[in-house]
Amino acid sequence: MIVIESDSDGEWDSRTDWHALAEQAAHAAVECSRYGALLHSALAVEISVKFTDDAQVQALNAAYRSVDKPTNVLSFPMIEPELLAPLVEADGGEILLGDLVLAHGVCAREAAAKQIAIEAHAAHLVVHGVLHLLGYDHESGDEDAEAMEALEQQALAAIGVSDPYAVTEVQS
Fold this sequence. Notes:
alpha/beta
């Protein structure tokens, strides 16, 4: 089973249930991945999602990636992905898969630029981050990037979020 722990600070609109969004997006990402069986495993697989501000993400990005600027989402895996497959058959117990941290300002600006709701973009970022926790990587080559994008599209479609990679034609 997948267990989501989440926290959102004041910049994230309190009218949105960010925990429910994180839970739905994370479950969809896991289900579409090669580790989908973890959803029905007796093993509790915990993912922590922090919805915070740009300054906090910038500090983490500088400390852990030596990049002194905020980014939309950071993923901090706690277990090597190749160790997950054998755990599907576990009789119980729990592991921390990893942490995700989303930056409100970056997320809001990107959503506005794409002319989509911040909730849809945040769902995409949670899916993207969970796939990183599961070992998927879009920076290791075009084939891996395309495979990861396809999984993102599949997971987002399952929760009713439009394809973030679709190219829309501008009417003139």
